[in-house]
Amino acid sequence: KLAEIYYKNGMKKEGYQAFKRALEELKAQNRFEDYVRLMEKLAKAEPDNVENLKELSQIYIKRKAYDRAYPALARIHQQNPDDLQSLTNLAQVCAKLERKEEAIGFFKELARGYQKQGLKSKAKEALQKVLELDPEDELARKVLASAEVSVTKEETKAKAEEEVVELSEEAEVKEEVVEAGIEELDEAVEEEAVIE
Fold first, then answer.
1. What pLDDT is recorded for position 32?
2. How many C-beta atoms surround the C-beta of residue 109 within 10 A?
3. Which of 75-84, 101-110, 161-170 shows the lowest per-residue confidence on average (mean pLDDT)?
4. Distance CA 56, CA 36 (A)
């Protein structure tokens, strides 16, 4: 109640601190339902506080209250589009809510985000989720197919490089054997010359 009074009187900082103290007390007392209600009030009072929204969305996801997690995750994504964990949660929540087109769009966005970070296997997983939702999605199929081709090319190149290294090592060994044989032959010729 004190936190709400602070907010109503324009004292946001004090209100936020009062909310946080109350949340800590509720958590310590294992009063989970009250904790959730207070987190919801805090989310209304501080709609742009991403950390609070993340915590609230995690609570909803754990409770399988996907319809309540969706708005919090959408707000997080709107404020921080590069947060791939929240984007993953948003895509999965959309899939659970049978918002297929949104889920597909978010999984594709997630794949692009992972690709930018060089996380190719994560990008591939996101595109596979797209195909689970829509097996006919041409873009996902094309990108995954080209990824397979590039992986095959990379594997072929790596194998070829390994073979070159092996061949050069074998050549070095043979060269050493030949040089040793030449040295022995030279020594034998010198010994014969000395003996005669």
1. 77
2. 17
3. 161-170
4. 7
